[in-house]
From TrEMBL:
<dbReference type="InterPro" id="IPR000383">
    <property type="entry name" value="Xaa-Pro-like_dom"/>
</dbReference>
<dbReference type="InterPro" id="IPR050261">
    <property type="entry name" value="FrsA_esterase"/>
</dbReference>
<feature type="domain" description="Xaa-Pro dipeptidyl-peptidase-like">
    <location>
        <begin position="24"/>
        <end position="154"/>
    </location>
</feature>
<feature type="region of interest" description="Disordered">
    <location>
        <begin position="353"/>
        <end position="372"/>
    </location>
</feature>
<dbReference type="InterPro" id="IPR029058">
    <property type="entry name" value="AB_hydrolase_fold"/>
</dbReference>
<keyword id="KW-0378">Hydrolase</keyword>
<dbReference type="GO" id="GO:0016787">
    <property type="term" value="F:hydrolase activity"/>
</dbReference>
<dbReference type="Pfam" id="PF02129">
    <property type="entry name" value="Peptidase_S15"/>
</dbReference>
<protein>
    <submittedName>
        <fullName>Dienelactone hydrolase</fullName>
    </submittedName>
</protein>
Length: 372
């Protein structure tokens, strides 16, 4: 039987930190059956603003790519993020210390996973995006039992404080991690990464391998408008899988698809209007119609929501843009919001008064967009 598109998703709280007093909100995806399964741990990035306000990350597209190949996947929200307890530690421009602080929670996650009967504790892979990539490389300074390799997706951290040479601090951090490196890694940065340009990535990689670190830098090109989001993108697997597959084969991890995953449900098309017929859109004033014109140039997946109050919102890329558009629209509206279009077609109900609930596809949870 094919796996449901939700991949047996569950949320657990696992102990971490000093004395194991903190609890990490952790998403788990698994194939059907008891296992044991090889394990992938994915580490999230950091959005601007207060970490506590950052909602749970799922990386559903990357998780799906690995569950299809027989892996269990765990995604811990580190201390101070989302519903995880504990305190987020910020060492400012000391990028070396920042990486180590975040890696501590990753190590606690792996220690917890080893006690699960559904985990093959001899075959573990650790991946991280942006700040999570920095934490992943920092973790590689330890010979962690069972961890065979690391995937660094656009790893780093940016600090725009006036006194911070964050680029130089990153180079120094990766030099330090390289001098102490124990686990091989694959680095994947796109040519159009908005945070870490190719010149900086070249300096970081050269510092790492120059001090003895084992890391191959993938030669990736341009990904959509910003390669920094490739790990969370619906189209990301096509961009990063070839290099990942080669790396996994080298470290003895599975690469063959052995499970079929059913497609997620989608909203049906309506015959209310064509996607580009701006005059047909109800409720919107001139500003809203101008926003819809801009929306038609956005990347897919995308969604546009509106309200009888005249409120509107669109979302593009990443996970569940329909949920994100509805939630943000509702924050700006006195009344309920309904989806008008998704991707390249209109879903607005033809019967006036259709409920918002009837206009939404089944969803699991909202997710995040741009991160570092």
């Amino acid at each position: 039987m094919p796996l449901d598109y939700r991949l047996n998703e569950q949320i657990i709280m696992l102990p971490a930190g000093i004395g194991k007093q903190a609890m990490l909100e952790t998403t788990v995806f698994k194939p059907n059956g008891p296992g044991p399964f090889p394990l992938l741990v994915i580490n999230h990035g950091k959005e601007s603003g207060e970490p506590r306000r950052q909602t749970r990350d799922r990386f559903i597209y990357m998780a799906t790519a690995f569950v299809k190949r027989g892996y269990a996947v765990m995604l811990p929200m580190r201390q101070g993020f989302s519903r995880s307890s504990g305190r987020y530690l910020d060492f400012g421009c000391d990028m070396t210390a920042n990486g180590y602080a975040q890696a501590s929670d990753v190590l606690d996650t792996i220690d917890y996973a080893r006690g699960m009967r559904w985990v093959d504790d001899t075959r573990i892979l650790v991946a991280g995006q942006s700040y999570g990539g920095l934490a992943t490389v920092a973790l590689g300074t330890q010979a962690v039992p069972g961890v065979r390799g690391l995937l660094n997706f656009a790893g780093g951290l940016r600090d725009d404080a006036d006194a911070c040479d964050w680029r130089g601090a990153l180079v120094a951090a990766f030099a330090h991690y390289g001098a102490n490196n124990k686990i091989p890694s694959l680095w994947m940065y796109g040519a159009n990464d908005s945070l870490f340009d190719p010149a900086l990535v070249g300096r970081m990689h050269a510092a790492f391998v120059g001090m003895g670190g084992r890391a191959r830098r993938a030669e990736l090109g341009v990904f959509k408008r910003d390669a920094h989001g490739m790990a969370a993108s619906r189209d990301g697997e096509k961009f990063w899988w070839r290099d990942t597959e080669r790396f996994l084969e080298q470290i003895g991890m599975p690469t063959r698809e052995i499970h079929t995953v059913a497609a997620a449900p989608v909203l049906p098309r309506s015959n209310f209007a064509e996607i580009g017929d701006i005059d047909a859109i109800p409720y919107l004033g001139e500003n809203g119609r101008a926003a819809y014109r801009a929306y038609l140039g956005k990347m897919t997946p995308r969604a546009f929501a509106l309200s009888p109050s005249g409120a509107w919102c669109w979302a593009e890329e990443g996970e569940q843009p329909d949920v994100r558009a509805l939630e943000t629209c509702a924050e700006k509206s006195n009344g309920p919001c309904t989806l008008y279009s998704v991707d390249d077609y209109v879903v607005w109900p033809n019967s006036v008064g259709s409920s918002t609930a009837e206009s939404q596809p089944p969803v699991v949870a909202p997710t995040q967009t741009a991160q570092q």
